[in-house]
Amino acid sequence: xxxxxxxxxxxxxxxxxxxxxxxxxxxxxxxxxxxxxxxxxxxxxxxxxxxxxxxxxxxxxxxxxxxxxxxxxxxxxxxxxxxxxxxxxxxxxxxxxxxxx
Length: 101
Fold this sequence. Notes:
By secondary structure, the protein is α+β, with helices and mostly antiparallel strands.
């Protein structure tokens, strides 16, 4: 539960700080979703903000927060996936312990 809590905290904090910068976007929505599919869980944080900057990388970037989230996702035997739609969406897909497909 600790890695999940840290990931959600980091993603919501990043959305709050970066998706709605002053003078560009004063308001918007942040959503947290939890989905269970067979033996897999998906926790996603999405926003309808300004989107990710050009050249943004989950892997190999210099952001401590992204490195932290990638490491925590690996602790869960999961994968961090970034989607660039309206705003941004970060989702961690990981197996549910004790469940089989």
